[in-house]
Amino acid sequence: xxxxxxxxxxxxxxxxxxxxxxxxxxxxxxxxxxxxxxxxxxxxxxxxxxxxxxxxxxxxxxxxxxxxxxxxxxxxxxxxxxxxxxxxxxxxxxxxxxxxxxxxxxxxxxxxxxxxxxxxxxxxxxxxxxxxxxxxxxxxxxxxxxxxxxxxxxxxxxxxxxxxxxxxxxxxxxxxxxxxxxxxxxxxxxxxxxxxxxxxxxxxxxxxxxxxxxxxxxxxxxxxxxxxxxxxxxxxxxxxxxxxxxxxxxxxxxxxxxxxxxxxxxxxxxxxxxxxxxxxxxxxxxxxxxxxxxxxxxxxxxxxxxxxxxxxxxxxxxxxxxxxxxxxxxxxxxxxxxxxxxxxxxxxxxxxxxxxxxxxxxxxxxxxxxxxxxxxxxxxxxxxxxxxxxxxxxxxxxxxxxxxxxxxxxxxxxxxxxxxxxxxxxxxxxxxxxxxxxxxxxxxxxxxxxxxxxxxx
Length: 457
Fold this sequence. Notes:
Layout: E1 5-9, H1 12-25, E2 30-34, H2 47-52, H3 66-73, E3 76-78, E4 82-87, E5 92-96, E6 104-107, E7 110-113, E8 117-119, E9 132-134, H4 138-149, E10 155-159, H5 163-172, E11 178-183, H6 194-206, E12 209-213, E13 217-222, E14 232-237, E15 240-243, E16 246-249, E17 253-255, H7 258-262, E18 286-288, E19 295-296, E20 303-304, H8 309-323, E21 337-341, E22 344-350, H9 353-358, E23 363-371, E24 381-389, E25 395-402, H10 409-418, H11 423-427, H12 443-455
Parallel strand pairs: 1-2, 1-7, 2-3, 7-18, 9-16, 10-11, 10-16, 11-12
Antiparallel strand pairs: 4-5, 5-6, 8-17, 13-14, 14-15, 19-20, 21-22, 22-25, 23-24, 24-25
């Protein structure tokens, strides 16, 4: 009797989580992972720190090799194998193999699509010039690192002011390198509200990163007068022209869904693959997970697209288990994330003020500054911003920023969002206290106390 076969398209977070979980559940299943690039398992979130030099080499980011999966988990991982077509009616995937051989038709019983995300290339002339990079995968980041290590970069321009743009501002900034960050929208880092944004802008300014908002980039110019030849030398934007001998595109990502769309698989939010709680698509036997798939926002109740590593790993695990005969759910997310901007920690979870209002909530909000730990032990202020539903008192979102104590505190409020706690219930939480770690009234509780006052108005 032939073994059932699971084919996974795409490695890294979602794909290998799916394959590994399927193997745990079903030791007899034939599991194959096809990855079009040379790297199958690495920490994509560590790429900015590799550029900065905090990670000594690329191998430190690589987690497992294809050989590890073959020998330790009996999963056949094939790199440099690109899936170019999915036939859901015949349950086959067409794969182009290395060496110029003819494409192969690979039959499957179960399919997990984990094709991830791709850079959202802006419509800018000159993107083909030398010295223009993105940092969405290991190979492109290696190319950027080699370029920086050549010693020829004195003026770097980052296009985009989201998570990656902020992390790259720190990564590129050295004592002898100028960094300019251009954001096309009126506000930098739209994931947070004004109180948090002001702290981010101040921190960038303290480290001499020039920031221009409302600066839509129109073209890049090189050192040769015609076409995409030579190396980049200048960036032309609506806020002026800037010298640059290196440009990093941090303009976000979009789901990589061409294969799925051509196969008749339904797309949902922001063009991502539409899935249910079991990571199933509209096609029987085909599941999707990770940065190519949408998910449910547990606070707003709406489908959303949030390409984060935590979500990808969890979705992949659910998809793999269900492909192997299980029946488990991925309920959704609350949108928790943290980012480091030089010495500033920034955290957010749930809905921002703007998002809550767009979702139809009548809101109350509060923002406080309070020391992260006892001042006599050097405690420094953090800002805590909370948003709640005025009708029910339910917490809807939280944001924090400060030099310490943010990254783990935001998880407390993420837990509160999962539990659908009201502000009053959060206020009653029994949080830990000792002077080296907190004040007797934790900043979270101080902020909630202020929020309760606002809810009573």
